[in-house]
Amino acid sequence: MRGPFFLRPGHYHCSMDDHQLLRYSRHILLDEVGIEGQERWLTSHALVIGAGGLGSPVALYLAASGVGRITLCDPDAVDLTNLQRQIVHHSASVGRPKVESARDTLARINPGVRVDALRERLAGARLEALVAEAQVVLDASDNFATRHAVNRACVKFGVPLVSGAAVRFDGQLATFDPRRPDSPCYHCLFPEDAEHEEVLCSVMGVFAPLVGIIGAAQAAEALKVLAGVGEPLVGRLQLLDARRMQWRTIRMPRDPGCPVCGANRAVLAAGTTGAACTAR
Fold first, then answer.
1. How far apart (Å, rounded) are the C-alpha atoms in residues 112 and 13?
2. Contact call for residues 173 and 218 (beta carbons, < 8 A)
3. Which residues contact 108 (CB under 8 A, 6 or more apart)?
């Protein structure tokens, strides 16, 4: 009987050992993924900004799926109020830096994954340096200033960005890929100089499973981008009303006059930055 790891002679060389082949067998069984897709994940680097409600399921699923290197950034410590939804942390983690708590949890889930835990609020050159090293960035932050700074860095270096947000019972999800000429950026959707109400879970509250749904969907989008599987949410914004469990899709056109991605469009379309990103 042909097993799930059958390779045609001379077709492909598998660098995974028997333990990895078994651990990731349910991915390898997927025709769209296979051994090649799983090995792409094993050699990939994801930058996760935020280790809270969204960052928890993001990090858990990336680690469980075998993304080889995860850089996790968050300046905060675990608070008792976090435990209602931030499932990467535990009661014993209260008072610890979130990134250290998350790193320990991920190590227990998959010790074969490298987790760089950075207790930092990223900005400026430091943010750009970390984005430039990654192959995908997942924004699980909770403020517009960080989101726009992350977006600018992703556009500059041609790195795909998966953005999520959740508050009360409302969630949203989108993927921005500056390597694609048709992709808008975060600024196209939410201009930085426009009036946006900063809505925080600490003030408005949040339905615990909502961040799990959106965070898991962010992880799915990142894995699709890294392995070239399926069609990511480029040019589409997904909105979830968890009260009714209804999804709504809004088309997002690229703003040709966008001050963030417009000037870089010719370079990115030529493939110079995107090729460098893919080769990392």
1. 20
2. yes
3. none
Residues in Cβ contact with 64 at an 8 Å cutoff, skipping those fewer than 6 apart:
109, 110
pTM of the model: 0.89
Chain CA centroid to CA 42, Å:
15
The torsion angle over the Cα atoms of residues 32, 34, 39 and 40, rounded to 10 degrees, is: -10
- Here the tokens at position 246 are 């209804």
Please count the other Cβ atoms lying within 10 Å of the Cβ belonging to residue 90.
14
pLDDT, tens digit (0-9, with 9 covering 90-100), for 179-236: 999 999 999 999 988 655 555 566 789 999 999 999 999 999 999 999 999 999 999 9
Mean pLDDT of the chain: 89
Token duo for residue 152: 């600018």
> At 259, which amino acid appears?
P
Nearest to 156 by CA among 174, 182, 137, 175: 137
Query: Mind listing the pLDDT tens digit for each residue in 147-193?
Result: 999 999 999 999 999 999 999 999 999 999 999 999 999 999 999 88
Write out the catalytic residue numbers: 201
